[in-house]
Design a protein that fits this description.
By secondary structure, the chain is mostly beta strands. The protein folds into two domains: 103 residues, no CATH class; 195 residues, no CATH class. It is 5% helix and 58% strand. The longest helix is centred in the N-terminal third of the chain and has 17 residues.
């Protein structure tokens, strides 16, 4: 098997992007810029004095081709950052440059195929997500930023609003989502998701398969989620991961999220959202728990004509 190193993939992506830009008309090109700065000052008793940083994400979106049947477009976003940190001992700086997103897409009426560094996420939960498989989205981050995965994603949309997802991921030796163990570097992962709307709820089944970084251990991950929209919104996410027998991993990892939300009719409205999360693992029996932990979260959003006030507890 031929392995493409990370720096080589970045060069190939940059060359292809510049090639397409050169041979396409300017009116199909869209440029965006996202700049974020921060300054953290610490108390005198702290060993740190300040933390200064700036992040710049220039985005290029290009429509390559379009007709009545389908379109082809691409997006490339760089991630450039600079940090300056001072503590009692010394001052040091750090710069970084990488791709944030870089994908090309074939888009038709009922399906789309997208290849490259992209974001893959789904599920009805907001704060404590059991289906956080491939992203690191922080619910308190208003920009909803997260690392992407290098992958091929196919989505097909049926006439009754059901949809089918299929994906293949080029793995890195890094943790994704809620993973406890990293994948085998330069390996391949695959999975899919089928989502179906019933009369009173929308439900889905998800699956993912990968090889871990040690011991030739395999993981098969299964997920079920559902959402009901009544006067009170209700949702559920259930995930079970089965590992092949290994001395370093449990046989099972289990995740559960259930939540609800409601908008109180006071002023312009107060949106209240709450979720409860349970994690457990077991050595042999699925129904047993060698380790278990739980957490809860509440979000309050006050709607206003001029601003939105959000607080998470």
């Amino acid at each position: 098997m031929i392995e493409i190193k990370e720096h080589s993939k970045k060069k190939i992506t940059l060359i292809l992007t510049l090639f397409v830009l050169y041979f396409n008309p300017v009116n199909s090109l869209t440029l965006k810029n996202d700049i974020k700065t921060w300054l953290n000052l610490f108390e005198k008793k702290s060993s740190q004095q300040y933390h200064l940083g700036i992040s710049y994400k220039p985005e290029i979106y290009l429509e390559i081709f379009q007709n009545k049947s389908f379109s082809i477009d691409l997006e490339t976003t760089a991630d450039l950052s600079f940090q300056n940190i001072k503590n009692d001992a010394k001052t040091f700086s750090e710069t970084a440059a990488d791709f944030y997103r870089s994908w090309i897409r074939l888009n038709a009426e009922k399906f789309e195929i997208r290849l490259g560094l992209q974001q893959i996420n789904y599920g009805p939960a907001f704060l404590l997500r059991s289906l956080k498989w491939f992203d690191q989205i922080d619910p308190q981050d208003l920009l909803v930023e997260t690392d992407g995965v290098t992958s091929l994603l196919l989505r097909y949309f049926f006439l009754n609003n059901a949809n089918l997802w299929l994906w293949g991921i080029y793995a890195k030796d890094e943790l994704k989502g809620l993973e406890s163990f990293a994948s085998k570097e330069y390996g391949y992962e695959f999975g899919g998701r089928i989502q179906y709307p019933f009369e009173f709820c929308e439900t889905a089944f998800s699956f993912h398969h990968r090889e871990l970084e040690f011991g030739n251990t395999l993981e098969n991950r299964f997920g079920i989620d559902a959402r009901w929209d009544f006067q009170i919104g209700l949702w559920l996410e259930v995930v079970a991961s089965k590992f092949s027998k290994d001395n370093f991993t449990p046989n099972w990892e289990k995740f559960l999220t259930f939540g609800a939300d409601y908008t109180i009719n006071l002023g312009n409205g107060i949106h209240v959202l709450g979720e409860h999360f349970v994690y457990s693992n077991s050595e042999n029996d699925f129904y047993e728990s060698s380790y278990k932990t739980e957490s809860s979260a509440i979000s309050l959003i006050i709607l206003s004509d001029y601003l939105i006030i959000s607080q998470q507890l």
